[in-house]
């Protein structure tokens, strides 16, 4: 039975991933996510319902449009598979519960902003507003473990988490604006961590922030090294922070913290 449920959650995740692909493609372009129906970006042919099955359709059509045969990016399938697998991970840890529902919604938000940030360097405001509304709803319903005993306590916990997530980045921005006359962190990143704070609570969002900086640091050192090999300009060693989207690293860190943040922080604190 548990395997049957797991398979169902995975397939459900594939379909949600297919919807997230639409969001990733359309929201930064300020297009509606419900209409018109999906068309081939190359020839404009409306995609038939039987060609819209996640993963399977891509494999059957060998990654090509049925009418014009233009190649379709395998990333659509990757996003679907990623969504299915992450939903499955949430199910494995939390079962079919309120917490599972809250966590898959937040996972969907994280996946969407990861790819809009990679594609267009945008973390859309509409998704952040959706995150604030759903986050507060789930905290009030008691679906996240950080919720309080009463609605008032839950709201306070959500507010405190939001400040814990966005606050450090706001302070960094104020300092960098003051000293180097440039914003160190994008506005989208601040909003993202504010939303993450509602969902994760203060402790887990602070852990996510630290983890995100560490992951981003490791990757920027690697990319800087690769860049140095073939780019003379990089010899000065100055890293242009604005050219690296920070959102994807924060999103990975938020997901890890959502699943294991409490255990990791408790383990760390046990040494003191
Ligand atoms: Zn086509």
Features:
Four Helix Bundle (Hemerythrin (Met), subunit A); 68% helix; 8 helices; mainly alpha; 272 residues; 2 domains; binds zinc ion
What would your notes on this structure say?
The N and C termini lie far apart (43 Å). The chain is mainly alpha-helical and 272 residues long. The chain contains eight helices and no strands. It is globular and about 60 Å long. The chain is 68% helix and 0% strand. The longest helix is centred in the C-terminal third of the chain and has 44 residues, at 187-230. The protein has two domains: 1-82; 97-272, Four Helix Bundle (Hemerythrin (Met), subunit A) (Up-down Bundle). It has helices at 2-26, 56-60, 75-94, 98-120, 125-140, 151-179, 187-230, 247-269. α6 packs across α7. The site of zinc ion has 8 residues, from loops.
Task: Describe the protein's topology.
Elements: H1 2-26, H2 56-60, H3 75-94, H4 98-120, H5 125-140, H6 151-179, H7 187-230, H8 247-269
Zinc ion binds at residues 40, 42-43, 45, 65, 67-68, 70.
The N- and C-terminal alpha carbons lie at a distance of: 43 Å
Largest sheet: none
Can you tell me the CATH topology of the largest domain? Answer: Four Helix Bundle (Hemerythrin (Met), subunit A)
User: What is the number of helices?
Assistant: 8
Number of strands: 0
Could you say what the CATH architecture of the largest domain is?
Up-down Bundle
Structure in a nutshell:
The protein has 272 residues and is an all-alpha fold. It has eight helices and no strands.
């Amino acid at each position: 039975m548990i395997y049957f449920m797991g398979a169902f959650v995975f397939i459900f995740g594939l379909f949600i991933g297919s919807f997230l692909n639409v969001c990733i493609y359309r929201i930064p372009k300020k297009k509606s996510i419900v209409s018109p129906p999906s068309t081939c970006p190359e020839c404009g042919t409306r995609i038939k319902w039987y060609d819209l099955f996640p993963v399977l359709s891509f494999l059957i059509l060998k990654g090509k449009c049925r009418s014009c045969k233009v190649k379709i990016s395998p990333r659509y399938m990757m996003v679907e598979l990623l969504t299915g697998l992450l939903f499955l991970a949430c199910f494995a840890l939390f079962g079919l519960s309120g917490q599972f529902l809250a966590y898959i919604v937040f996972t969907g938000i994280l996946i969407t902003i990861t790819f809009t940030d990679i594609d267009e360097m945008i973390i859309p405001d509409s998704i952040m507003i959706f995150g604030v509304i759903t986050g507060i709803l789930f905290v009030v319903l008691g679906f996240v473990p950080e919720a309080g005993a009463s609605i008032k306590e839950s709201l306070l916990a959500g507010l405190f988490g939001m400040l814990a997530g966005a606050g450090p980045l706001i302070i960094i921005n104020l300092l960098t604006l003051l000293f180097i006359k440039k914003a160190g962190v994008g506005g989208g990143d601040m909003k993202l961590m504010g939303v993450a704070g509602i969902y994760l609570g203060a402790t887990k969002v602070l852990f996510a922030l630290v983890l995100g900086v560490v992951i981003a640091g490791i990757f920027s050192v690697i990319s800087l090294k690769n860049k140095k090999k073939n780019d003379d300009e990089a010899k000065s060693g100055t890293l242009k922070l604005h050219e690296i989207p920070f959102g994807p690293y924060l999103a990975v860190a938020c997901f890890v913290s959502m699943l294991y943040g409490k255990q990791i922080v408790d383990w760390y604190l046990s040494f003191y």
